[in-house]
Amino acid sequence: MTTDIDVWGPDEASMPTPTGNVEAERILAATAMAEPGCVDDLSVKGFDPADISDERYRMVWYAVEELASTLEASAIRWQAIAHLLQRWKAEGRMVARPLTETELGELYVAAHPGAAEWWANEVAREAVRSRARAVGTNIHVRSNNPAFDPDTDVAAIQAEVDALIRPAGESNAADFGDLLPAVLEAAVTPPSLEDRVPTGFIDLDHLLSGGWAPGQMVVIGARPAMGKTTVAAGFARAAALANGVPTAIWSLEMSRHDFAVSIACGELRIPVHHLKRGEVQNDVLARAAAKVPAMSSAPMKIDDNPYLTLPGLRAQIRNLVRTFGLKVAVIDYLQLMQAPPAESRQVAVSIISRTLKLIAKEFGITIIVLAQLNRGNEQRSDKTPMVSDLRESGSIEQDADIVILLHREDAYDRESARAGEADLIVGKHRGGPMATITVGAQLHFARFVDMAAT
């Protein structure tokens, strides 16, 4: 009895040649007919039937998948599959000629009961090999293109390499009873730097249960010249300089030199205008000298590429997580990022916002992204900003785990009784309380200071 099917109809002349392990695909299709339950079992474990390169066998798999929900027999006979395949062919869902009832009967005896997972792994391995060859060809084509752009093309290649092995679809579900001991242990165990990254402000840390958490996207919103870059630099100082947490900053507006000036002045209490003029007094330098060695070895990187793209950012973060142990990423600021092609600016910002959240979750880091507010608060008698004042606020507010709005009354009224103070308004806190944290604004030192500590 012949078990391999090599007959192709005249309408298949344009069909691509199967690139996978066709023998493994044939046996897997046969085993699915004999043991329909393996279809669900393998899907849960991450097997993708799209890895079956021969459409004839792939459609047999899909037919078993559909019939398994309606037929209660332990095995699905080839007659039912033949009928369904013929219907799909008539409806235009198949390009290849479907296997006939006779061919399916011959295929049925090729089943390897109990070995479906082994054959599925063989199919998946060959599919990865095929995709790897395609990526190699694409790398060759891109690198020989006169219009080759390192930022765009290398990031695209990196994304293709990452996609070679598809993420497993195996369920991460766990019994509540198995999770409960860890929950109770956390109730009596103070968070460590692995769990939380201190913000540099005692009251804010208390509100956030110890600081920033892995996987969070934190949005800092403010009007121009309010000090959002300064507060972001303060968060970076608290992470890297005070606690040794690997931190990276992407500054799309300021040069990396100017950002470094802001961080250094904030840490050393040097007036920014004195440093920029080269007028820092010797006694101030002597006082700061003791801190310089520790600052020099702090795990902090600053990137000032103004053309930052989402693929480029993801590739850099992926590399920094692997080589630098990155825990905190600061982006200044969201609306300056290169927007992906979209039908509107709002849709483009939605894509940026959603992707940043997914990157934070994928790599288990905290992403602190600055965002511009619209003029909504300036048109109100009470200038206090609200979350709805975020530009394109729908997507940003939805994706963010925490939204902090920066407000200074003396920015609107120089004679304000609260001159020298600033409010960090926690307007959104997923899973926690909201509050307003008052801090001191020492903008001449490029820093905000913790009033609770004083």
Average pLDDT for all residues: 80
* Proportion of helical residues: 40-55%
Specify the number of helices: 17
**Main beta sheet:** 9 strands, mixed
Name the strands of the widest sheet in spatial order. 3-2-4-5-1-6-7-8-9
Low-confidence parts: 1-14
Please, what is the oligomeric state? single chain
Q: What is the string of helix and strand elements?
A: HHHHHHHHHEHEHHHHEHEHEHEEEE
Strand content: 5-15%
What overall geometry do the principal axes of the alpha carbons give? elongated
Based on secondary structure, the structural category is alpha/beta
How many extended strands? 9
Rounded Rg:
29 Å
The termini sit apart by 88 Å
Describe what you observe in this structure.
It is a single chain. α1 runs parallel beside α3. Strands 3-2-4-5-1-6-7-8-9 form a nine-stranded mixed sheet, sandwiched between helices. It is elongated. It is α/β, with parallel strands linked by helices. β4, α16 and β5 form a beta-alpha-beta unit. Helices cover 44% and strands 12% of the residues. It contains 17 helices and nine strands.
Question: How is the topology of this model organized?
Answer:
Blueprint: H1 22-34, H2 37-44, H3 55-67, H4 78-90, H5 101-108, H6 116-143, H7 150-162, H8 176-186, H9 202-207, E1 217-222, H10 228-243, E2 247-251, H11 256-268, H12 272-277, H13 282-289, H14 292-296, E3 300-303, H15 310-323, E4 328-332, H16 345-363, E5 366-372, H17 393-399, E6 402-407, E7 421-429, E8 435-442, E9 447-449
Parallel strand pairs: 1-5, 1-6, 2-3, 2-4, 4-5
Antiparallel strand pairs: 6-7, 7-8, 8-9
